[in-house]
Amino acid sequence: MYISNIQINNYGPITDLSLDFPFNGQNPKPVLLVGQNGAGKSLFLANIINALITGRQDEYDDNEVEQGRVYKYRMPSYISSGKSYSYIKVQFQSGAKVEELQLTNKKSAVNPPDANYAGLDIYQIMPPEETSAFSASFSQHPGTTDSLFKKQCCLYFPVHRNEEPAWLNIENATRRANFTKLKNISRQSNRDFVVSSPLESNRNWMLDLALDRSLYETQINNIILPNGQPGQGITLPIFGGYIGESSAVFQTIQKLIRIIMRQGENVRLGLGGRKSRQITIMKDEIEWIPNIFQLSTGETQLLNFFLTIIKDFDLSEASFVDMSNVKGIVVIDEIDTHLHTTQQMNVLPELIASFPKVQFIITTHSPLFLLGLKQKLGADGFHAVQMPQGSPVAVEEFSEFGDAYEAFIQTERHKEEINTRIEESQKPLLYVEGDYDIRYLKTAAKLLNREALLDMLRIEDGNGFGNLDKIWRGYENPTNSVLPQKLILLYDCDTKKSDVDKGQVYKRTMPVQLENPIAIGIENLFPEKTILTLEETNPQFIDFQPAVSKRVRNTTVETPAIRSVNKDEKGNMCNWICEHGTKEDFNNFDKIFDLLEEILKSN
């Protein structure tokens, strides 16, 4: 049983919204509400929650709201500015609906009534001296609440959810898991609908699962071994694993943990002994996380969402098989709160996709989450709604965020690789723009007797100034520039970068030699005599554009001759100079060595 439609008129910023909830065959598509703060996303959810709690009151007594009360206030102040009424209707697949009508004045004071609501049944039942009316038709559609709450999960995660970390509340680090106490009484659900801090109850429920699995689902296979006597043998009991519903739930939790932690089969849940009964996470059969309260905030949020979904379905009257058969309605306000970009883009979409029979109704501010869902479910696999209009959102509108995310990930990977190289090396790391720069520097050091200085550095090819820029951006946060060794980024003179220091990270540009004929690249360091010699012996290395004289508005303008290294001959030119070059050819490289020496000597 799912929600089929919601209609909202003149409620806060929402003036005219009607949404048919989409389905893929029998399975509901996730619905994502996006929009600026104040666009009505939480108001939209409040009406969904109000309808579900009203239905839950028909089935259970242990509700968050007393029988006959409502979750959401009705008041004239929520009527859209300039309007005389607000109307809301939430409809379910069975035909059951929850309606409310709010007027700015008493019914008796409005004559004639607005034609937009005068024909509504709910208006007819409104008392003359009242300004509002509320109606629910669950009783007219038998089986609706039974299907909604007894045979599927039904949950709401408000935006104010939180868990106290182990470092803040010592009880979380030392308190043992306890077995759950369930009341097997008519009209008692033993389940929460509004969920803010479920980790402790989830932990206790996992202990119940482990106990049930051990007591009732242990499989023992008896093997008869011969003892040498004809027709006789020794019966040897062999553990054959666990089979049963509790085991299926427990295995599903293991899978959930692996998705959240982005780990493989080497990660599993662990259970401490009776003297310190903690739920732990094991990796390679070694305790990895001693207490689930020690998970990061983002990991805890994800675990709470989806572990609670599994638990709520398990405590219902439905039979559990795996994640794909979990059915229900789950409402989450600001789902991306506390989640890292990787969790928004990759982990959360994978978890949503793992529950195809759950009707997710979600608010989000994260375009990365939408892009991740598109990659996982396809553009037609979910429905994004722009609030307050209620119009569909094309995920392509956020494609630039995907490009930015990929650039961020590449930068992070590049930074991790650099950090690894720094840690592996006992030397400061020098990045230059290309392989030819490395060869020129090594030849110059040999000819100029600066090899001792260059031996103090590990030199790496940065593959162009663009990649050096990425490295620099990766260390923009001051805390990221706290490195065990210095990192130097050496740009060619034509990039015109400013010299900047960030902690242990140094950005430097080769000093430009204005008098030399080659204007760009490391070749700018070679004097005119060297270039002219090259031009004479290997003219293919140097491209030449003669000086040009032209008259502009009766004034003669002289453009000097231009020499440049042929891009296809850069490697050959490097080979020739490194083989035949002299100290005089490489004299200007001393300026680079002085620059590097100054950095190495600095504190």
Question: Key features?
Answer:
603 residues, alpha/beta, 5-stranded antiparallel sheet, 27 strands
Can you describe this structure?
The protein is α/β, with parallel strands linked by helices and 603 residues long. 34% of the residues lie in helices and 23% in strands. The chain has 17 helices and 27 strands. A six-stranded mixed β-sheet has the order 9-15-16-5-17-18, with helices on both faces. A five-stranded antiparallel β-sheet has the order 2-1-6-7-8. A five-stranded mixed β-sheet has the order 20-19-21-23-22, sandwiched between helices. A hairpin with a 2-residue loop joins strand 25 and strand 26 (555-559). Helix 6 packs across helix 7 (245-261). The chain starts with a strand and ends with a helix. The relative contact order is 0.09. Residues 170-174 have low confidence and may be disordered.
- Subunit arrangement of the protein: single chain
The largest pleated sheet is described as:
6 strands, mixed
- In whole angstroms, the N-to-C terminal distance is 68 Å
Unreliable spans are 170-174
**Helical percentage:** 25-40%
Beta-strand portion reads 15-25%
Could you tell me the number of beta strands?
A: 27
The order of strands across the largest sheet is 9-15-16-5-17-18
Structural class: alpha/beta
Helix run count: 17
Q: Average the pLDDT over all residues and give the rounded result.
A: 83
- Bulk shape: flat
What Rg is obtained from the alpha carbons, in whole angstroms? 35 Å
